[in-house]
């Protein structure tokens, strides 16, 4: 059933440099600042400063750095702190007056600074930064080959897109406006998400028992802003993040689990009194409300807590009452709220729609400001039923013309992630090139209830496959989609699904593009940064179950042309996952190719170097042109 559509026009690989995407937003009085980012293919980096947005929707540049973001306006409304990246250097913290003047740099840290958090009295800024051991990570003129070996004694020793951890733990810092920096934690454990309890005390997130042993649990701790002992404030029920104070209560986002059973858990809003007089309470329903942390820190206004909820592909900005509930949707229906801020009665959000990477919306006024971009192709919503009667949902991005068009089935990663109502550059590029792109959210995805997300635990390759193929069938029932010319692609979990479908339903596809995939759970367990818990949490502990749920087990069934695509420095789904699949296919004589991107990690398609992103798009279109256009 088709329930809605958006009529629009075209995105080509070379148009990456035309995609201006708004990021973080801040508001104080009539001052609204948004960060923007645009890929620069010539310099092979991202550029963009802060722009001021006026209530009538007009804009003007406010800073002129290579890349300025994470802006925060001081509580007294007099200063703005933000991160500035010059070229490919590390981000450093800057501050400048609201009424104009030159930005002043406050930090010069070898690995850069994290997002600023103003003290209530506007005199200091807290932030998190990784501090390298002496002699490592550019602290001397010698290269990495001159560094001493790393002694590793824990399972949680590295993470994708960051690297090794023990020799550069994240530490909590405070900087005065004169540039005096103080470290408040000693690097014996990682810290994140600082917030001010008051002018003299900070709260932050750290692993359970300050990371004494490997754990997926995290708690809330305090430390005096002038330095001193770290103290436990709140013991979380699972994972805790993004604490903040409103009135006499502490709020945060969190999950609830035991052991390693942390996967596919909805994040909810939690609350506890600052004086410790009562136990923490979850304010949102565990099954139906899943908070999207990627959209930013929740904030309180006079009526409740503003946050973003994942709901059937929409990222809805909601106001949750202080005593809990599902909340009122302020904006984001059939859209994706990427960031938001509030001051007094003014609520501002960056909203992505099927035809726009992002617009700044003054919520409740109807005013939206769009930045320069490119026109997009038409998107329609798909819904139907799987073979067991379970409802399925997704989208179809269509090229111009009546068709029938060749079809690309694109499966998202995660699996506890989603395709959304927001702008998706990949689908737009493929549709511009003439392909109808099917975007399913099968069981295992986020935003459809926690039970939907957990339906694939111990069952990879079962109900998720049924849902993916059922959404594809809804699309193929349309006269503008060619059921005889279908390809399948995806990254991470989507790469897993591509490999699995190629083995078990290969007759339905002309070719496959499997990217940064999990192909074998046995080696993933020991090589991925999260493999030591993720495999057991999703697949169980039985090696035979791992084998049964591994696409590589069925490689002898894959006979269609198969592209194995990976990043050389991917530590989430390590390169060996690609190598094992490629070698197995080539030894069988399958028409297979392997494409490896140097210097990239797991996030290549979203935040990789602009030239690599364009080169990847070129390669994808060449592949589908070879097998679907004829």
UniProtKB/TrEMBL annotation:
This is S9 family peptidase. It comes from the Bacteria. Keywords: Hydrolase, Protease, Serine protease. SUPFAM superfamilies: alpha/beta-Hydrolases, DPP6 N-terminal domain-like. Residues 421-629 form the Peptidase S9 prolyl oligopeptidase catalytic domain.
